[in-house]
Design goal:
The protein is an all-alpha fold. The chain has one domain. Helices cover 73% and strands 0% of the residues. The chain has 7 helices and no strands. Helix 1 runs antiparallel to helix 2, helix 3 crosses helix 6 and helix 4 packs across helix 6.
């Protein structure tokens, strides 16, 4: 048997071992009651990318111990993220609302706030390790600063888009287009609007 065949056999045996123990791995992930079932499943499924690192015996008990040690930090980080969102979610939402202001400029201010809030929590999930390390600023301050940044960046992007459209329309000679508030217009639309005049 060649080395390549040995590796393939080992990989296949590890996959079988994983499938045989999936229920126990999932139970281990869901032992933390803060996690949603879907997140527990994702954690258990993410273990597959670490299977090549397992060099222990192909028995259930040692494999389950190894799997528990691998997924425990991920479960802990997810639980911490849930705790953060529960505790600081209203603050983050409020900061985004205050930064955007109460304006009728947006189609649906609530949808924009929700989108930006989700962006902040996605960022928090990606940076959870650094957020859990105590720093010079409190966790609430760091999350609110990110919320302010996200809201300002979104607002700036909207202003730049609107200004770009207005400039493009202004370049068409004497265009009396009703599309001044349109997000994007193609060259063909601009030419058509100029011809309609």
């Amino acid at each position: 048997m060649t080395n390549e065949q040995n590796r393939q056999d080992r990989r296949k045996q590890l996959e079988e071992l994983y499938l045989r123990n999936y229920g126990r791995i999932l139970d281990s992930a869901l032992a933390d009651r803060r996690l949603l079932v879907q997140d527990g499943e994702r954690v258990a499924e993410s273990l597959t990318k670490y299977l090549p690192d397992y060099d222990g015996p192909l028995d259930d008990e040692p494999f389950q111990q190894w799997a528990t040690e691998i997924i425990r930090p991920a479960v802990s980080r997810l639980g911490s993220l849930y705790d953060m969102r529960r505790e600081y979610g209203p603050w983050v939402r409020g900061v985004i609302r205050r930064t955007l202001g109460h304006t009728s400029e947006f189609d649906d201010l609530n949808a924009v706030v929700e989108e930006l809030e989700n962006d902040v929590w996605m960022w928090a999930g990606a940076h959870i390790k650094s957020l859990l390390i105590p720093g010079t600023a409190k966790l609430s301050t760091r999350l609110c600063a990110r919320a302010i940044w996200a809201a300002r960046a979104w607002r700036t992007k909207q202003i730049l888009r609107r200004d770009a459209v207005v400039r493009r329309i202004a370049t068409v000679a004497a265009c009396q287009s009703p599309f001044l508030q349109c997000e994007v217009m193609t060259d063909a639309e601009l030419a058509s609007a100029a011809c309609d005049k």
